[in-house]
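Dear U.,

For the methods section draft, I wanted the exact inputs and outputs in one place so we can describe them consistently. I've listed the two proteins in the order they'll appear in the manuscript figures. Please don't edit the token lines directly; just add comments below if something needs changing.

First protein:
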Amino acid sequence: MISNFQPGLGTIRKVGLLWIGLTEMAVADSGGASAGPHMFAPVSTPAHSIYRLAMFVLVVTAAIFLTVVSLLVYSIVKYRRRPSDNGREPPQVYGSNQVELAWTVLPVLIVVVLFLASARVIHAVGDPRFPAGTIEVTAVGHQFWWEFRYPKQGFVSANELHVPVSDPEHPTPTHITLLSADTDHSFWVPRLAGKTDLIPNRENSMWIDPHEIGVYLGQCAQYCGTQHAKMLLRVIVESPEDFARWAANQRQSAERAESVARGRQVFEATACVNCHTVAGTNGKGTFGPDLTHLMSRQTIAAGAAPNTRENLRLWIKNPDDIKPGVRMPAMQLNDQELNEVVAYLASLH
């Protein structure tokens, strides 16, 4: 059934903003992010294993398909009806041990081979042996953003997972513990590893060891609510030196520039502090992302828009304009307060 829905100005504006945001992200990604989240260019050991298994299964199934199609075409051509046919039923074959053995043994062998190949990859990916220098990260899925805790380094980030590149000769894998704060989610960065679900009251885990520096795109692969499609994530793979510098910066408290003191006061006096943490302030909330180093991130709203002052202002003023159905409320600030809070947040590097 086709409805008589007529989009209003608000809907048209939201669609336009979404298109602009996606266009800006595509332009931004062209310089730094790896092309598209697909599995056909793996750069991590788990992804390589899954890719090779997928190609092997594809070859086996393609061979089966070609064999069946070839026999079907042969039968159609050889036994097609001819003008000289007398219309009688051709001789029937019953009790051929060779035929029955073939169509029983061959499928069993194919299933056994595919089972063993899959079991080998499942064991290699699911039960690895980690070296001493493994990076430990806890990923918590929220509606609709990602929280990344680095327990050994002692800080928390959001939506963009930073990890060091792993040298195949001296691997530095990243072990990710997966938790959910509300409903089912699924962590998926196709070029780095397969999908793994985040389930409430259950602890899952996965690991990656990317071999190339770059930005790898992923998303939540399990429908988790209104904004599931915009629950995006980025894995930023850096050199060990760059990762160490980034981690050292993340451990620092927020800057307290006097030029944005008024914006900090507005932030601390509103409901912002009930949901967000900013180290060095009275903001200790955990319902929303940690904002201590907000401007060190490439995007806001879990990848829904580039991290610019204009988008940040729009996000605070009316989050639904960027991410309809998001759980962040509009803060109802006047223009002066809005400008001061944006200036303060823009200082959090």
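Second protein (the one for the lower panel):
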Amino acid sequence: MTIERILTHPEAASAEAIQTAIDAFDGYGRLVLPAMDLLLDRGIELRSGIELVGQGSATVLRKGPGRIYPMSGYHNYGMQDVPLTSTTGLAVGMTVSVLDNLRLGFYETFARITWIDGDWVGIDTGLSADYTADQQPRLTTAYPMIFGHRISNAAVRNLVLDGRREDQEIPMGGCRGGAIYLARSSATEVSGIRQYDYHGEGISFQMCRDVVVRESEFSRNSGNGIHPGAGSTNCLIDDCRSTGNEHSGFFFCVRANHITVRNGVFEENGDGISIGTRDCHNLIEACRIHVNHGPGVLLRPDRSPVEVHSCRFKHCSIQGNAEREGGGQIVIAGPARDLEFSENDIQGDAHNPKPGILVEAATQKVHLRDNRFAGCDPDIRADERSLAHTTTSFECGHGEFIENRFRHLGYGVSP
């Protein structure tokens, strides 16, 4: 049974108050936020079975200022405390990140403050790395605005998220965070979200399965707009916009497999859609990929045996890309194989002529069928040995799969 609780303005007066309401549920619950404009001093953490719902454009959450707190010196892996030169402005319950100039990505530590004693702060997880004084270690108030770790059957819907990028001193690393972030989570849905101006990724989900993102927008972020990675599997991204992001509109990271991207709009990003290491069995269909600064579709260079393979692109409009860099509207680099591009509209710029599809020599088994070209020079640049005249049979996109499709993640439906 799902219990619904509708918060009043006093009950939703702070991120801490909202978190208290989420944590008070015992079992399945639906927490409804009022129409409001709230500045967050910490991220809001989703729990399994909880649906967080706003009032659409009337419910606006804005990220609080991003500040840097230098560490006072060396501190070692696994410790759940951090020595700082000052703790002014920090409070128990706030979410923070710890990093240095060298240890980034998954070596960045994301945690919640559990205690403060002088210039020491306690955190609820062990440090992800050794942090040495010569690499400028620091704690920062960079955090995902809404996040979930090891959750299932949760949702966030109908909210506006303003990352207030102009007031953030340091970005949140995309492996550990984003405006919305999920890690080791399953059966979670994001819908009706308008997100913009975050210093980092719009949405990032890592080591997840069965994630659905619908009818949402991720815009003007300093990183990628949408970023599934680290083995995320069996996900659906439907009817979403990703525009004006400095990096890719959609960035498949390592081993992001069996993902369907459908009815998307990817415009004015660094690249439109970027696919790389072990990102296989993916389906991109009926997407609008226009006027990105780099290629509309980029299959990044890699090496065997971690090459991209078994991906299908169909019924997409790919136009006016590679205006600043990149060799064409679609660029396939390295030893990618077993790819299909069918019934796409591919249009270049007559004033800046580049190929419609550029295939590097190491690529194999690219099947091109019924694509329509305009303004490209040439339409296709490829070694004949890289092309396949018949379709290779392969499965792609999200769907119903036997459990061995998920064994690399190490957990089942309820992590």
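Candidate sentences for the figure legend, describing the second protein: The chain has one helix and 39 strands. The mean pLDDT is 93.

Thanks,
Y.
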